[in-house]
Design a protein that fits this description.
This protein has about 80 residues and is mostly helical. It has two helices and no strands. The protein starts with a helix and ends with a helix.
């Protein structure tokens, strides 16, 4: 019986470690995509009034991407641990 409990705990720990790894990867990817969108937005600002609108949209998009990835990572952590 004790061995089965130990195996169950080990499986839980492995599942939690995997959830933490996936959450970290998702956050890193979101930061990269968000940063790229922000850079595109910054460059778009040099294109006149239309570029400023595009820059603002890209910056909002980068924030939305990062917030969504953060929410998914948090949900993954809550589910896995």
């Amino acid at each position: 019986m004790a061995r089965a409990e130990a195996q169950k705990v080990a499986n839980e720990r492995a599942r939690c470690a995997e959830a933490i790894r996936k959450a970290g990867t998702a956050r890193t990817n979101a930061a990269l995509v968000g940063g790229a969108l922000a850079m595109v937005g910054g460059l778009g600002g040099y294109a006149g009034e239309g570029g400023m609108v595009a820059a603002h949209a890209a910056n909002i998009g980068s924030s939305a991407v990062q917030a969504h990835a953060q929410a998914e990572a948090d949900a993954s952590m809550a589910e896995g641990c």
